[in-house]
Design a protein that fits this description.
Elements lengths: L1 H20 L14 H4 L11 E10 L7 E13 L6 E13 L4 E15 L7 E14 L11 E2 L2 E2 L11 E17 L3 E10 L5 E2 L9 E2 L3 E12 L3 E12 L2 E15 L8 E10 L3 E9 L3 E10 L4 H4 L2 E12 L17
Antiparallel strand pairs: 1-2, 1-18, 2-3, 3-4, 4-5, 5-8, 6-7, 8-9, 9-12, 10-11, 12-13, 13-14, 14-15, 15-16, 16-17, 17-18
Organism: Sediminibacterium ginsengisoli
Keywords: Signal
Pfam family, one: PorP_SprF
Length: 344
């Protein structure tokens, strides 16, 4: 009984943090590299092709409580601009985050624009500047609240004295970012980037009717990615992100090795199987498998919880699935016609 009581209070507090608001942290994916706009809008368009559509689904904490489920969809379209090698990427990031017992749902729809300025006529070197912004809406089921003053004699009874004036909140958000991408040799591509989310410091109204509202703290992110060949049929890809939001910090990174399974005609992309692992520092180990076809890729990962919560979770974290489509469009204004283009 005591264990269940403590667990319920813990997860109620975790769920209420974004709703009752105390500088809540943003959600993130373990396969974070598959949702570039969530990392940094200046990473939009850093791929080979004109169009990329990426989906991600995450199911977490099912071993402890009602699962936290997050679904995300991003769309990026690259357009050559001017007479040189400059490129413009327009896109959109859409996310739906559902959390636990309170059925807390956070919906985000944010258009993005990223301008890639070519810095060289000899190789694919770009400096990119981007903005992304739009509405964010959050709602929760107040009837599912379980507050401390409802527990009497070790059991749940009565109603809480805590006033709940609202079952959600909305705000407008803005993120700005910059990135530098280039090549080393003929086939090694890399990028580095930095972004600041919640630039306008959105005000979130208290759901308890308090006269004191909260301000969503800006989030600084630093991003690194590299794609390098290994022998005739191998590939290494590595990614790392560092986030800082208020007092919260997070470091996430890892590496995967890919092997060509089947090579098609010259100029087409081979089928590649990637196997590797990532780590969210002090939180989870993340074994990952990814299969990449000519235009499609699918990935699966699982979080092995290593934080203090492992006592309750029994080391089990969350399953994550991703799917991506990318290709050149058969149109006149395609980046395929450019001598140089942003790619990865």
């Amino acid at each position: 009984m005591i264990k269940n009581f403590t667990r319920n209070l813990l997860f109620t507090a975790l769920i209420l943090l974004p709703a009752a608001v105390t500088n809540a942290q943003d959600f993130s994916f373990s396969q974070f590299y598959e949702q570039p706009l969530l990392r940094n809008p200046a990473l939009a368009g850093i791929f080979t092709g004109d169009l990329r559509v990426s989906m991600a689904y995450r199911d977490q904490w099912g071993s402890v409580t009602v699962p936290f489920r997050t679904t995300s969809l991003s769309i990026e379209h690259k357009i050559p601009v001017g007479s040189g090698n400059d490129v413009l990427t327009i896109g959109s990031q859409m996310s739906l985050d559902g959390a636990g017992d309170l059925r807390l749902k956070r919906t985000m729809i944010q258009p993005a624009i990223n301008f890639h300025k070519s810095l060289s006529d000899d190789k694919d070197t770009y400096l990119s500047f981007a903005f992304m912004g739009g509405p964010v809406n959050s709602q929760f089921d107040a009837t599912q609240l379980k507050m401390g003053d409802q527990y009497q004699g070790g059991s749940l009874s009565g109603t809480t004295a805590q006033p709940i004036r609202s079952t959600g909140y909305s705000y407008w958000d803005l993120t700005a970012g910059v990135s530098f991408s280039s090549t080393l040799g003929d086939k090694t591509n890399f990028y580095v980037g930095a972004a600041l989310a919640h630039v306008t410091k959105p005000v979130i109204k208290s759901v308890t009717g308090s006269s004191t509202n909260d301000v969503l703290a800006p989030r600084l992110s630093l991003n690194v990615g590299i794609n390098a060949p290994s022998g005739d049929n191998g590939h290494f890809i590595a990614f790392a992100d560092y986030f800082k939001q208020g007092e919260h910090k997070q470091l996430l990174g890892g590496i995967m090795y890919g092997m060509n399974l089947q090579q098609y005609d010259y100029g087409s992309q081979p089928d590649i199987l990637y196997i590797g692992s990532f780590m969210r520092w002090d939180d989870a180990l993340i074994p990952t498998v990814k299969m990449e076809f000519e235009h499609f890729s699918v990935g699966v990962s699982y979080d092995i919880n290593i934080s203090k919560l492992k006592v309750v979770s029994n080391w089990r974290g969350g399953l994550e699935l991703t799917a991506t489509y990318r290709d050149f469009l058969k149109i006149r204004n395609s980046t395929l016609d450019k001598v140089r283009c942003v790619k990865f």
